[in-house]
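User: Run a structure prediction on this.
Assistant: Running it now.
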Amino acid sequence: MNANLLELKGVQTHIGAYHILHGVNLAVPRGQLTMLLGRNGAGKTTTLRTIMGLWKASQGSVTLNGQDITQAATPQIAGLGVAYVPETMGIFADLTVKENMLLAARAARTAQQIDEKRLQWIFSLFPAVEKFWNHPAGKLSGGQKQMLAVSRAIVEPRELLIVDEPSKGLAPAIINNMIDAFAQLKASGVTILLVEQNINFAKRLGDTVAVMDNGIVVHAGSMKQLADDEELQHSLLGLAL
């Protein structure tokens, strides 16, 4: 079995007339949490969307569990056990929290058919999801919506969870809750790829890290190595962690 669950090799992505990714090489080790860092506009979100098939790579390959998914449709990729939480969260504001969860639980036709043990585990990670179960999702706070977005992504077992900036705009207490939840998810065997701007979040959670700049990965290694090397941080990110 390949040590890497997900691999990108020489991935290039064009969006209309714009050439965004210029040959991304990225490895996401199985069972670990990989941080994808970089300045705004470096190509991080485009990389995630290319992995999910929302934008197609014009060159290079994306493999999951050794299977080439470069040209696969997004529903096919999701069917292989991949969940994606975009920066916008994608919450259905007019539906209740329960209805949002039910939409993601493809094996269930009613809320009663959602795996009860898994649901209770999600409630333990994100108590607000249980508290506001019958409330319209649009009425939730930003932090509660983010909790719902992640909960929805893991309502069924996933091999790979991809999340774009989960801590953006959240209060410190909610960020700590989110860090604890991702740590538990990783401990349960889920492989996680996170784009994140909150450096404390990255330092506390990351096993491995890839840093992007101008559409390519310019550094890859252990998160601890980057966190301990202030000179390297300055050269890659223009700041100290």
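The mean pLDDT is 92.
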